[in-house]
Amino acid sequence: MRRSLYLVLDETYRDFLPPEAGAPHALFADPRAETNLVGLYSFSKAYAIPGHRMGAMIAGGTILAEIEKVIDSLQICAPRPAQAALPWAIEALAEWRADNAATIASRARLFERMIADVPGWELDQIGAYFAYLRHPWPDRPAAAVAADLARHLGILALPGSFFGPHQEKHLRIAFANVTEDGISEIMRRLALGFPALPTNQTDDEKGPSIHD
């Protein structure tokens, strides 16, 4: 506040926090929230409507008035049918959202347990939808490792380099829409492919592997 900075919270995944964890913070109870805090929320994940780009914003009246000036000048906005349906869905789908969050949390716990037994892979962070993994080839670019996983093991992952500098040792794998059997299959393939994926060789240089 002394430096006229704003804290912007992106709480897209707040519905997936375990109920026993309680409130994640008390920032909105701080008097400074009226002038220096902006809370963002997306309906896309909890309500399974990502294509509709529906969200919400919480901020002080003065901040919102200035933001509305910008929004009023945009040429695109969220579609009206989804805006009309959401007030009903907030109450009516509460039980469905809770059940869905519990299912995804169970998948996250399974992923966390199983990845610990896969040689060479380390789990650095796990959230509601994604796991951020340290892959076993520190000298190879993350994009090359991701390409090898897709080519040899049929696993799609995003390179850590997509998310910022100094992330070449990491991959992001989504598990929220993968069944428990599917998560088990991912682990089986990762364990199978660990000794067989290429190092720094080109496709012409490397010999046959168990995947060829």
Outline the structure in words.
- This protein is an alpha+beta fold and 212 residues long.
- The protein folds into 2 domains: 7-92, Type I PLP-dependent aspartate aminotransferase-like (Major domain) (Aspartate Aminotransferase, domain 2), CATH 3.40.640.10; 95-193, Aspartate Aminotransferase, domain 1, CATH 3.90.1150.10.
- It has 6 helices and 7 strands.
- The strands form 2 sheets. The chain has a 4-stranded antiparallel sheet, with helices on one face. A 3-stranded mixed sheet has the order 1-2-3.
- Residues 201-212 have low confidence and may be disordered.
Average pLDDT number: 88
Q: Based on helices, strands and strand pairing, what is the structural class?
A: alpha+beta
Distance between the termini: 60 Å
Shape: globular
CATH topology (fold) name of the largest domain: Aspartate Aminotransferase, domain 1
CATH architecture of the largest domain: Alpha-Beta Complex
Residue runs with pLDDT of under 50 for 5 or more positions: 201-212
Radius of gyration over alpha carbons?
A: 21 Å
Q: What is the CATH superfamily classification of the largest domain?
A: Aspartate Aminotransferase, domain 1
Largest sheet: 4 strands, antiparallel
Strand order of the largest sheet: 4-5-7-6
Beta-strand content estimate: 15-25%
- Overall CATH class of the largest domain: Alpha Beta
